Amino acid sequence: MEYTNSKARAINGVVSHPVINQEGKIAYQEGIDPNTNLLLMTNGIQFKPVLERPSKEDARNAITYLYDTFFNEISFAETPSDSHVSYKLNFLLAIAVLLTSFIRKQIDIAPGFVITANTQGTGKTTLARIIHLLLTGHDMTVHSLGGSPEETEKQFLALLSTSPGIVCFDNQFDGSEIKNVTLSRVITSLIFTGRILGKTQEMTVPTHTVFIITGNNLTISSDLLRRFFCLSLQSNEERPENRIYEVRDVKEHCIAYRTDAVQACLTIIKAYISNGAPYKDQKVKMSGFPLWDHMVRFPIMWATGVDILDAMELSRGESDEQMAKAGILEGIFYLYDENEFNARELFNRLRTSRFQHSDDALDLIEDLSYNFSQIAKQALEKERSFVYVLRN
Length: 392
What we know:
By secondary structure, the protein is α/β, with parallel strands linked by helices. The chain folds into two domains: 48-314, P-loop containing nucleotide triphosphate hydrolases (Rossmann fold); 320-391, no CATH class. Helix content is 41%, strand content 14%. It has helices at residues 56-71, 89-103, 124-136, 149-160, 181-187, 250-256, 258-274, 290-304, 309-314, 320-336, 343-351, 359-375, 383-391, and strands at 13-15, 19-20, 26-27, 31-33, 38-40, 112-117, 142-143, 166-172, 177-178, 191-195, 202-206, 210-216, 219-220, 228-233. The strands form five sheets. Strands 7-8-12-6-14 form a five-stranded parallel sheet. It has a three-stranded mixed sheet with strand order 1-5-4, with no helix packed on it. α1 crosses α8, α2 packs across α7 (258-274) and α3 runs parallel beside α6. The longest helix is centred in the C-terminal third of the chain and has 17 residues, at 258-274. The radius of gyration is 22 Å and the shape is globular. The protein starts with 12 loop residues before the first strand and ends with a helix.
């Protein structure tokens, strides 16, 4: 017998840690937080309060604490900009993954993260596991990403129906390109609708989950370049899997210092917001994830002087134009497969109102439009410019 309580209050999710909203207010008590509509179930754990107005120095100290306590044995790859700043870009990306996991259920959309390395045994899964342990207090289940589009859709529906904090697709094939239409849709949507396995009925689930993909020598396909950050690890040891770490039991260590880690994460975010959110009125390049910029990227940038969006630019390869051309070819293949098409038909299709496209085609249309405009600003305004891009 089906029972519904019309008076039951709908919530946005369940979390096991204090939550901070966009105005910097933090809720510590168990129960439904009216500011975020999240149900806090801390299992009796007493989390440490954050200062009412932490300073930039407090935020920097919190970042340093997280590195010293949890990430100092991770082999983060160096980037050309690292020599000019105090923090490695790839380490700050790890901080971004951690902060994103703590605020993901109270913002609309957020990027995903690829953790890749030059060889096995470098600590990709361990890094993801540390972040999951600090977020939830329990260990992480890993999954495989692959299969047909129909199988992938059902897999995502099943995973998201449990409202996990993090979904980790672990150990992708060495050297593979991360390319998945369903994943591309999920990252930029508030909800995901699919057919339930073994049934004809559909189900709609929220997408407020952090997606992490791990593997060696991974690259990101053009349709995911603006949706995923690539965090790189690098080991120069001949057999990194034989390295002896000071922290022998990662789970025990993370749980022992979890309340300190949560306090540090909340301090980084609150320090930026309580000091006036300095970037909100400035002309700063946006990532495409405005609320995530406000609660993750900008707090890190304000505290350290490093913009983690630079990592996304590094992922683009040698030039934006080359990546745009590759994206155009890939997008056309997805739209038409091996069927014939003409330039005028495609030109008109890209200029059609977004409301006239199906959900499945909309992301492809938007990516194609973006890539054409990257090569020639007038490509979607003048058919001659559009044809020129296709020919070259």
